[in-house]
Design a protein that fits this description.
Elements lengths: L20 H16 L12 E2 L3 H13 L5 H13 L17 H14 L6 H12 L8 H9 L31 H16 L34 H17 L5 H17 L11 H13 L7 H11 L2 E3 L4 E3 L5 H15 L2 H14 L35 H14 L9 H13 L36 H13 L8 H13 L14 H14 L7 H12 L28 H13 L6 H13 L13 E4 L3 E5 L2 H18 L10
Antiparallel strand pairs: 1-5, 2-3, 4-5
Helix pairs in contact: 1-12, 1-22, 2-4, 2-10, 3-4, 4-5, 7-9, 7-10, 10-11, 12-13, 12-14, 12-22, 13-14, 14-15, 14-16, 16-17, 16-18, 18-20, 20-21, 20-22, 21-22
């Protein structure tokens, strides 16, 4: 299934033939029509956002944990979905076509058994055999073990100790909530209460999964902690510390404990975020709801009612199957779709982009100083979030993409009123720059790498440090707004960060998209916008890398396994529409629109376009947490290929090699 790599021995004539511009014009119009068909009534876009089996499985288990009435029809549809995505290895992967994953498999099996699947059914028997062959459910990660402990399937000694008093620690302490990422913060805070109170799931059906353990869970003498990324000496230290805490915590005084719970509830209450939920992400939302339950908050309390409603909004219910999304992506989808429409450039597309950008404008967060202000207290708010609402957690990536769209449309729609929004966002982006010149997604200078060594961080994703892809977006935005390396210190330091962060092979790591193709696209767009010479060494190396990894059919593809620890580099995959578009947009930004490889890539997109004008894409090309959590953005194959094809046409017709925009 791996795609072949285009190298010097692969003649370009073996690739797909070049497409004529008049034929491409029709393809672009068809793709534009297809994309516009997904507009919401008010003009914004919000496509499905799919993760792995863990989210729908946890949704089912959440309902049974609380003892909610069983929705048999909904559960039947979720079961259909879970059975469909079971891998050829008989377990469940983290992404389409991926390897067996223990935690995803244990949760999916547990959910299917809870729904009513017979454990002797062929798919369940195969799943059970695969789980046992990989060491059994005891090999699950920390978050899965916590779920199993809440269901009484493993003892609490199987879980690292995280006292609620953590919330009371001073900022100078090595572990403080301000030192972890926003997603870790919102997930952990309500979880501390659950880990203290240790409630037992109501589980009215009495379903358990003892058959998934090679040794009965309550007979396991030693539970090991730690992820593959963690160093042995840190593991040894923290395992010893955990043993001490397990003995000491029951004797902690009740006064500080009660103060900690009060502070936790205040934290959650302040950030509950209406029907968009705590942090607007599924795990935090579930933990908040269950925290209220365990603290005895009545089910008719407005906080409980709205916390429960926020989770329901994540469901995708279709005719034959259903699943739960990890979050919603309207700001991201709408802003990126706007760029593709502006590139397409016909009257209807321009009008739709204007309506979409008008929809985005009031979603700018101007009145809430979120958690990011702990590191930057003197900076005024001015960003956009990823979701419909998430006032405490805007991100610089969405903000930069929105601003570039607003700035770009001004030339076509002089009656726009975006200037104040753009300048406020510029101020916020300046303020969120980290000391090393880069940008993280949600916080500045979130680089406490030692925290990824604690047992709770076996996923290795506790932090939000600066990354090339996010930094590139900020550089692109600042440069598009007219800043230069000569007159702007933030831009100068951002460009220096990107050049320093380039990999030896010429690519850039992609934190939020898979992976090196995404990072390289982002970075080449930024360097072009910042005026870096296309003949400079960093850009030439990146171009040669992209040309070297083109597939023989003309497209590009990269497997999620490129994130694996033992090999930090590109992993080939069959050609994928969104990744092909990224590679093309990257080469175009580097001045290579006339290169034969670009023509072949455009031809591949044209040849694989479907009857609806769009592209199929089962593969996951979005990043959640490398090696732990991946995303399939259903919108990516709907707007990125259109964007790349329209840019190819525009540069050809304009007889220019220069991309004039930040993206």
């Amino acid at each position: 299934m791996r795609g072949a790599i285009l190298n010097e021995a692969t003649p370009l004539r073996d690739l797909a033939p070049e497409i004529r511009l008049d034929e491409l014009e029709g393809k672009i119009a068809h793709a534009t029509e297809g994309l516009l068909g997904y507009r919401k009534a008010d003009g914004h876009f919000c496509f499905e956002l799919e993760a792995d089996a863990t989210i729908p499985a946890e949704y089912v288990l959440m309902r049974h944990f609380r003892g909610e009435p069983i929705d048999h029809e909904l559960e039947r549809k979720i079961a259909v979905y879970l059975r469909r995505i079971q891998g050829e290895h008989n377990g469940w992967p983290l992404f389409h076509g991926g390897a067996f994953d223990m935690s995803a498999s244990v949760k999916a099996y547990f959910a299917l058994k809870m729904i009513g699947d017979d454990i002797d059914a062929p798919h369940m028997e195969k799943a059970r055999d695969a789980i046992l062959a990989h060491g059994g459910a005891a090999k699950s990660n920390v978050f899965t073990r916590i779920l199993l402990a809440l269901y009484g399937q493993v003892p609490w000694k199987a879980v690292p100790t995280m006292p609620v008093e953590i919330i009371l620690l001073p900022k100078w302490f090595p572990f403080h909530l301000d030192k972890v990422s926003y997603w870790a913060r919102t997930v952990m805070v309500p979880l501390f209460v659950l880990m203290l109170k240790k409630p037992l799931a109501k589980n009215k059906l009495g379903i358990g999964i003892p058959e998934l353990f090679t040794t009965p869970a309550f007979e396991v003498k030693t539970w090991t902690f730690g992820g593959a990324h963690q160093k042995w000496y840190w593991k040894k230290f923290f395992i010893g510390l955990d043993k001490v805490l397990k003995v000491a915590v029951p004797f902690f005084p009740k006064g500080p404990q009660e103060r900690a719970i009060k502070k936790i509830v205040e934290f959650v209450d302040e950030r509950l975020n209406g029907e968009d939920g705590l942090g607007a992400i599924f795990p935090a939302m579930v933990n908040a709801l269950e925290m209220y339950d365990v603290l005895g908050v009545p089910p008719n309390d407005p906080r409980v009612v709205i916390a429960r409603a926020s989770i329901e909004k994540l469901l995708v219910v279709k005719e034959h199957e259903a699943y739960c999304q990890p979050c919603l992506s309207p700001i991201w989808d709408t802003s990126l779709a706007s760029h593709a429409l502006l590139e397409a450039g016909n009257d209807e597309a321009d009008k739709a982009a204007r309506v979409a950008l008008d929809w985005l404008k009031p979603h700018q967060i101007l009145d809430v100083k979120g958690d990011w202000a702990e590191a930057r207290p003197d900076v005024r708010p001015g960003g956009w979030a990823f979701q419909y609402a998430n006032a405490h957690y805007p991100d610089v990536d969405d903000t930069a993409v929105v601003v570039m769209g607003m700035d770009r449309i001004k030339a076509r729609a002089p009656d726009t009123d975006y200037e104040a929004a753009i300048e406020r966002a510029r101020e916020w982006i300046h303020g969120l720059q980290s000391k090393n010149g880069g940008w993280g997604a949600f916080d500045a200078d979130n680089q406490y790498y030692y925290l990824n060594e604690i047992p709770f961080a076996d996923h290795g994703a506790l932090l939000d440090p600066p990354t090339a892809d996010v930094s590139a977006r900020c550089v692109s935005m600042l440069a598009q707004l007219g800043e230069t390396v000569e007159n702007s210190d933030p831009l100068k330091r951002g460009v220096e960060y990107l050049i320093k962060d380039q990999e030896a092979d010429g690519s850039w790591f992609g934190r939020w998209g898979v992976n090196y193709i995404y990072g390289t696209w982002s970075s080449l767009c930024a360097l072009n916008a910042a005026g870096v010479d296309h003949q400079s060494a960093p850009i030439r190396k990146a171009v040669q890398w992209l040309l070297a990894i083109q597939n023989p059919d003309g497209g590009w593809g990269e497997d999620c396994d490129s994130y694996k620890l033992e090999y930090r580099g590109y992993e080939p995959a069959p050609s994928i529409a969104s990744q092909t578009a990224w590679a093309l947009l990257a080469l175009q930004a580097a001045g290579e629109n006339d290169h034969p490889a670009v023509a072949k890539g455009i031809a591949w997109l044209a040849a694989t376009q479907q009857k609806d004008g769009l592209w199929p894409e089962e593969y996951y090309t979005g990043g959640g947490f490398p090696r732990v959590f991946y995303l399939r953005y259903h919108g990516y194959a709907k707007f990125f290929p259109l964007w790349a094809m329209a840019r190819y046409r525009n540069l050809k017709k304009g007889n220019s090699r220069h991309v004039a925009f930040g993206m």
